[in-house]
Design brief:
This protein is α/β, with parallel strands linked by helices. 39% of the residues lie in helices and 17% in strands. It contains 11 helices and 14 strands. Strand 1 (2-6), helix 1 (11-22) and strand 2 (26-31) form a beta-alpha-beta unit. GO terms for molecular function: UDP-glucose 4-epimerase activity. InterPro entries: Epimerase_deHydtase, NAD(P)-bd_dom_sf, Sc_DH/Rdtase_CS, UDP_G4E.
């Protein structure tokens, strides 16, 4: 098994890369480094390229002798997708088709795709199943759903083995604390609350305080990148030619933003200044995964995705390393 991870120098991608390498798998990374970090992966296994350059991608597949692809390269900010939808259709959707065409040209027939819970309709008051209604509320979710349709077509038409993993909220860090979430412009709840708890940000913003939830804040399903990496390898091994599969990946448990804030204060022993801001467009009140299919078919069980484990890992990462570990600079206090 020789795997190429597109976007493999990013947060989830590099976690998958390190997990694969620990299993003795020949893994390689393709990343344009617009968001990923070269320091997150082995230098001699990194190729810098844009997935929209079909010829370049095909050459990398050929030179590295790739027979499996894990596709994580994408733009991921929901708010940014609303203000710049063209960028999201270009990178996420057209870029994915470019990758698929490169794979087809080089005879690579197995792919696991990093999809998202943002493909689902809003309004569920229970965990979401894979066969629940699909209605993405943002260009980000729509661009990812379009790739799922592409994969289904390539599975049916060209016999590819294709799997879409619908992440809920990726979080946490490596257990050794040496790698974790490090976006140049952070928008995710756990790193933001941890940075505030450590004094690297002035405070933590809670987006929306009057949601129809017990404490008025959004409820999300946070899942460790360590558990996500395990699921990717299981999905690769299970994929079958001509079949398109879809799996939810989450802890199966909802945690509100205010609960994350309280847990961060408990773990660090420090108060975290916070303020409530208007809800963001495209945000649902609740987003919780039903992971029955992944547990049953992949034999996957999240083991590091409880709130305390996620926050403890994130605090160890941000407290000792953080973004400066990759960039050589400290996040400025806001």
């Amino acid at each position: 098994m020789r795997i190429l991870l597109t976007g493999g120098a990013g947060y989830v991608g590099s976690a998958c890369f390190r997990h694969f390498r620990r299993q003795g798998i020949e893994a390689f990374v393709l990343d344009d480094l617009s968001e990923g970090h070269a320091g997150a992966v082995e230098a001699d296994r990194l190729d810098v390229a844009d997935i929209r350059d079909t010829d370049a991608v095909a050459a990398i597949l050929r030179r590295r002798g790739i027979d499996h692809v894990v596709h994580l390269a994408a733009l991921i900010s929901v708010p940014d997708s609303i203000t710049d939808p063209a960028g999201y259709w270009s990178v996420n959707t057209a870029g994915s088709m470019s990758l698929l065409e490169a794979m087809r040209a080089e005879g690579v027939g197995r792919i696991v795709f990093s999809s998202t819970a943002a493909v689902y309709a809003h309004g569920f008051d229970r965990p979401i199943r894979e066969d629940d209604p699909i209605a993405p509320a943002t260009p980000y979710g729509a661009s990812k759903l379009a790739v799922e349709h592409l994969l289904e077509g390539y599975a049916t038409g060209y016999g590819m083995a294709a799997t879409a993993l619908r992440y809920f909220n990726a979080a946490g860090a490596d257990l050794d604390g040496r790698h974790g979430e490090a976006h140049r412009r952070e928008s995710h709840a756990i790193p933001l609350v941890v940075e505030a708890a450590l004094g690297n940000r002035a405070g933590f913003d809670v987006y929306g305080g009057e949601w129809d939830t017990p404490d008025g804040s959004c409820i999300r399903d946070f899942v460790s990148v360590i558990d996500l990496a395990d699921a990717h390898l299981r999905a690769l091994k299970r994929a079958r030619p001509g079949v398109m599969a879809r799996y939810n990946l989450g802890s199966g448990t909802g945690t509100s933003v205010r609960e994350i804030l309280a847990a961060a204060e408990a773990v660090t022993g420090r108060p975290v200044p916070s303020q409530v801001k208007p809800a963001r467009p495209g945000d649902p009140a609740r987003l919780i995964a039903d992971t029955t299919r992944a547990r049953t078919e992949l034999g996957w069980t999240p083991r590091h995705s409880d709130a305390q484990s996620l926050l403890s890992a994130a605090i160890a990462w941000h407290g000792s390393y953080g973004l400066d570990h990759y960039l050589g600079t400290r996040i400025a206090a806001e």
